[in-house]
UniProtKB/TrEMBL annotation:
Main localization of the protein described in the UniProt heading: membrane
Highest taxon of source: Archaea
Protein family (similarity comment): Belongs to the SLC41A transporter family.
Domain CBS: 85-141
Subunit-structure text: Homodimer.
Transmembrane segments: 175-195, 201-228, 249-270, 276-302, 323-342
Subcellular location: Cell membrane; Membrane
Record's protein name: Magnesium transporter MgtE
UniProt-listed SUPFAM superfamilies: CBS-domain pair, MgtE membrane domain-like
Protein's job: Acts as a magnesium transporter.
Molecular functions (GO terms): magnesium ion transmembrane transporter activity; metal ion binding
UniProt entry tagged with the keyword Transmembrane helix: yes
Length: 345
């Protein structure tokens, strides 16, 4: 079976473990015509296997030369392959590190390289396509280590703590953050109560409260999920965290401008016969923009802070994000409404 058809469910420590044994090889005394016939008769197990080279060995299976398929087809059929093969070989040792081998293939820009043992006997072929999974596995492992994370000592332990602990332990892990969310909900309710007069004057404002809060929740959940995944995989670390924070703020602003325009258009169309239609649309627009920006930024910042403090970002982030974005959005929403619709109060 070729390496391309194997799932790398193990950690490869040697190139030989990921070497493809589907290739065409002939001895150096072979004529070009029979060598071409070898290509014609070659039937790889996988349809995705592509053969780029003819490998030439001596009678002891030691690699002595290589011919590209193009060179082989252009050579006279009554010549021996030894007269046309390239002897300045680039090979990879079977005991080499897979990551180093992948980097070497990338640097040389070859579609495949022959793999040999210590006695230069041909063992197999290492193809660029076959190395993709190896590169991803090795790179992910290195990034996680450099960031201080491994799936075994962090993510698995947190998952085990949530799934396999006793019920009191699970409650201890989850309840504090839910209590924080409850406190945030009560605080958001206090904000609404503080602007009760504004709500009574313009009842339409109440219609958009759940819209703003739900939109903030969705944006915040998206942002925190993306951030926690990037953090776990090592894509986000101390060196690039600020760049990601700023970028997410810009993304939140763009999302807010689009969503806010749609929401404002709906508000204006709904209340177009009312004297405050434009002011209501403005309030909805600013409220949606602000909640999207706040939710995006805190969706990144809070998981980062929680991780730095040693808490599980997956359990702690959402309640805190909900509290911050709800209170902030409602303060902006009703505060702006009180200013723009003051003549109605």
């Amino acid at each position: 079976m070729g390496a391309a058809d194997r799932e790398l469910e193990f950690h490869a420590d040697r190139v030989e473990e990921v070497t493809d044994d589907e290739y065409v090889a002939v001895t150096q005394e072979t004529f070009v015509g029979p060598a071409i016939d070898e290509f014609r008769e070659f039937e790889p197990i996988s349809d995705e296997t592509t053969v780029y080279y003819l490998y030439v060995t001596d009678n002891a299976d030691r690699l002595v030369g290589v011919m590209s398929l193009r060179e082989l087809l252009n050579a006279p059929e009554d010549d021996v392959v030894e007269d046309h093969m390239v002897t300045d070989l680039v090979t990879i040792n079977a005991d080499a590190d897979p990551e180093a081998a992948a980097n070497r293939i990338a640097d040389l820009d070859f579609p495949a390289l022959p793999v040999v043992d210590d006695e230069n006997r041909l063992v197999g072929v290492l193809r660029t396509d076959d190395m993709i999974e190896v590169v991803e596995e090795e790179a992910t492992e290195d990034i996680l280590k450099s960031a201080g994370f491994t799936f075994t000592d962090v993510e698995q332990s947190r998952s085990s703590a949530i799934l396999e602990s006793s019920i009191p332990r699970i409650l201890w892990l989850r309840l504090p953050w839910l209590i924080v969310a409850l406190a945030g909900g009560l605080l958001a309710g206090g904000v609404i109560e503080a602007y009760e007069d504004t709500l009574e004057a313009v009842v339409a404002l109440a219609f958009f409260v759940p819209v703003i809060m739900d939109m903030g929740g969705n944006v915040g959940t998206q942002a925190s999920t993306i951030f926690v995944r990037g953090l776990a995989l090592g894509h986000i670390d101390d060196r690039n965290a600020m760049k990601h924070f700023a970028r997410e703020g810009i993304i939140g602003l763009l999302i807010g401008l689009i969503i806010g325009s749609i929401g404002a258009g709906a508000a204006y169309a709904w209340q177009r016969n009312e004297p405050y239609a434009f002011e209501l649309a403005t309030v909805v627009f600013v409220g949606l923009v602000s909640v999207c920006v706040v939710a995006s930024v805190v969706g990144y910042v809070i998981p980062w802070v929680m991780n730095k403090l040693g808490f599980d970002p997956a359990a702690a982030s959402d309640p805190l994000i909900t509290t911050v974005k709800d209170v902030t959005a409602l303060l902006i929403y009703f505060g702006l409404a009180a200013v723009l619709l003051s003549e109605l109060l």
